Amino acid sequence: MYQKILLTGINGQVGHSLQVALQASQFPTELIALDRTQLDLANAEQIREVVRTIQPDLIINPAAYTAVDKAESEYDLAYSINAIAPGILAEEAARLNAKLIHFSTDYVYNGRKLEAYQEDDATQPLSVYGKTKLAGEEAIRPVGIPHLIFRTAWVYGAYGKNFMKTILRLASEQETLYIVADQMGTPTSSNAIAEAMMQILQQGDFKVSGVYHLVNSGQASWFEFAQAIVEESNMLRQREGKTGLLVKHIQPISTDQYPTPARRPANSLLDTGKLLQDFDIEMPHWRESLIKELSSLHASNL
User: Fold this and answer.
1) Predicted model pTM
2) 243 burial via Cβ count (<10 Å: 0-12, 13-18, 19+)
3) 174 in helix, strand or coil?
4) Residues 100, 210 contacting (CB under 8 angstroms)
5) d(Cα 107, Cα 88) in Å, to the nearest integer?
6) For the residues of 89-111, what is the DSSP string, one character each?
7) Out of 52, 80, 260, 268, which could bridge 42 as a Cys pair, Cβ 3.0 to 4.6 Å?
8) Which residues have CB under 8 Å from 74's CB, separation 6+?
């Protein structure tokens, strides 16, 4: 079992959920959880200094530059954080004989496949964000340390900025919403990711290295996800004796009708069979996790 874990990016969605889960658990003996002010992944020298000072036996790195559209005009910064930093973390882990868990993304794929992606499918990122995240994966592998890279997708939760919270805000302000319906994926709760990670850590030292897909089960379009958010939120509000959200209509639109600086994959479905095979983890359906996240959010707003 791990004595000292270094966790990065605790102000992000996954980092926050992991910090909460780890602090509530019986391990590690010591958890050092850092935000960007304490560990700036754009600062190579600081990364080395922090890791050498802490001397963890496991580094968990969910920190990333995640502003997908902004990355198109901030390539150097995105590359520093998403591509260079993971390689440095791997190198420093090697010096300490430590292990590394790193988080990546569905954006490493071009989204043209008709079925769910397998881990060994060809990568072809469409955006700067996707390209820099893929470069980060490729920086880790040659170092040769025990490592796990988890590609996740469509992450949301009660904490932080995300699609679920944006829809809830817009649905309280507008009667009609227009949501992209021709991109498919699996909405994935940051808490579902954290729960899976805890199961993996509880299994002890991981004997395998490589890439794994880590998403909820099921599939939806952004349009269907938005519908579910509003439906489930209204049900919760009704139980609490509150009026429903203002929104009356959610209209499907195409990606072409909602242009963005960065291109998104049309298909972000990720097969999690390898995760089940190697770690015996079966991910819950996305709607089940959505209800949990909405319940948590409603409880915090009471």
Assistant:
1) 0.95
2) exposed
3) coil
4) no
5) 22
6) HHHHHHHHT-EEEEEEEGGGS-S
7) 80
8) 65, 67
> Of all residues in the chain, what percent are helix, strand and coil, respectively (each to 5)?
45, 15, 40
Architecture in CATH for domain 4-161+188-217+269-285: 3-Layer(aba) Sandwich (3.40)
**Residue 11 tokens, joined:** 């102000």
Q: Is 159 a catalytic residue?
A: no
- CB–CB of 163/154 below 8 Å? yes
DSSP state of 123: P
Domain ranges (residues) in the chain:
4-161+188-217+269-285
- Active-site pick, 109, 129, 156, 159: 129
| Nearest-angstrom CA–CA distance, 243 and 229 | 16
Q: Kindly give the confidence (pLDDT) of every residue in the chain, 302 residues in length, as a single tens digit, with 9 standing for 90 and above.
A: 788 999 999 999 999 999 999 999 877 679 999 999 999 999 999 999 999 999 999 999 999 999 999 999 999 999 999 999 999 999 999 999 999 999 999 999 999 999 999 999 999 999 999 999 999 999 999 999 999 999 999 999 989 899 999 999 999 999 999 999 999 999 999 999 999 999 999 888 787 899 999 999 999 999 999 999 999 999 999 888 888 899 999 999 999 998 899 999 999 999 999 999 999 999 999 999 999 999 998 887 74
Residue ranges of alpha helices (H) inside the chain are 13-24, 44-54, 75-79, 85-96, 128-140, 163-173, 190-202, 222-239, 273-279, 286-301
- Amino acid 95 reads R
Buried b (16+ CB within 10 A) or exposed e, 186-217: bbbbbbbbbbbbbebbeeeebeeeebbbbbbb
Q: Are 106 and 37 in contact (CB under 8 A)?
A: no
Phi then psi for residue 175, to 5 deg, are -85, -25
User: Residue 207 has what pLDDT?
Assistant: 79
